[in-house]
Amino acid sequence: MNSNKNAVPAAFSDRRLSLRAKGMLAVLSVLPDGAPQSIESLSKLTPDGSTAVSSALRELETRGYIIRERRFQDGGRLGRTVITLKNMEEDKK
Question: How far apart are CA 34 and CA 21, in angstroms?
Answer without folding.
Answer: 22
